[in-house]
Design a protein that fits this description.
Elements (H helix, E strand, L loop, with lengths): L3 E10 L2 E11 L4 E5 L6 H8 L5 E8 L2 E2 L5 H7 E4 L11 H6 L3 H4 L7 H13 L15 H13 L5 E5 L7 H18 L2 E5 L3 H7 L2 E6 L2 E6 L1 H4 L2 H8 L3 E5 L6 E5 L2
Helix pairs in contact: 5-6
Length: 258
């Protein structure tokens, strides 16, 4: 059974339809990457999944349940999100921010338990934040903030993990470490992972499946080899590219032609 299923979903903003009749199923244990040019609907799809914008037509199911029928707490127990645009507002520490991810399980007034602390510690280790845990989030770099948001999502211990541009602001070392962690968690814990990204080559290396969006519709769905073809990418991104085998992994390597 698919953890996430979109059935003919149309949604967008006032006077602007962004996604048009999109149907998609995301299986457990898989990393599905959303690709596409700016404005193609990647972030809009995630926002619709989390009820941050209204679905005008169609249905979104999570674990077989219509998301529009779920309470906020039920949503937080099923879906975790590391957003792209959230900015640090309060002078909390990194550790305190990550702890907020446990509120879906203990509420806002229940005391912090030993189990909560274990999950927080694990997430801090996984995201390389243990030595930074006492730093104020108003004083950290963009990359450190990005890792904090990912750690906060991990401690929710949901079956579905969604990440909007998780590698933004990260140097190459942490890009690879974060995507490796996400892929390993998906495969080992049977998580359903849905993420947006702009880097075609990172997507090629780490995705189990890729959805290529163009103009609010699915232009292609499949493995990296099936989706990342020269003709399709040149058409969708309106620029010439060359696709060659990666020298190490034999996955598609996309090279823009100047």
């Amino acid at each position: 059974m698919s953890e996430i299923q979109l059935e003919n979903v149309t949604c967008g903003y006032p006077n602007q339809e962004v996604l048009h009749q999109v149907s998609l199923a995301v299986e457990p244990g898989k990393v599905l990457v959303l690709l596409g040019p700016n404005g193609s609907g990647k972030t809009t799809l995630l926002r619709a999944l989390f009820q941050l914008i209204a679905v005008q037509q169609g249905t979104i199911l999570v674990e077989g349940q219509d998301v529009q029928r779920l309470s906020r707490r039920e949503m937080a127990q099923k879906l975790a999100l590391a957003p792209q645009l959230e900015m640090p507002q309060w002078p909390m520490t990194i550790e305190e921010t990550v702890q907020l991810g446990r509120s879906a399980h203990r509420g806002w007034v229940q005391p912090f338990s030993g189990e909560d602390a274990e999950h927080v510690e694990t997430a801090l280790v996984q995201t390389g934040l243990t030595e930074l845990r006492a730093k104020k989030i108003t004083e950290i770099s963009g990359g450190e903030w990005r890792r904090t948001l990912i750690a906060r999502a991990l401690v929710q211990q949901t079956k579905v993990l969604c990440l909007d541009e998780p590698t933004t602001g990260l140097d190459l070392k942490y890009q690879v470490e974060v995507l490796s962690l996400i892929r390993d968690l998906a495969h080992e814990r049977e998580l359903t992972v849905l993420l947006t990204i702009h880097d075609l080559n990172l997507a090629s290396c780490f995705a189990d499946q890729i959805v290529l969006l163009a103009g609010g519709e699915i232009a292609a769905l499949g493995t990296a080899a099936e989706v990342l073809t020269e003709a399709r990418l040149s058409e969708v991104y309106q620029t010439r590219v060359k696709v060659v085998p990666h020298p190490e992994y034999q996955t598609p390597l996309v090279v823009p032609l100047l």
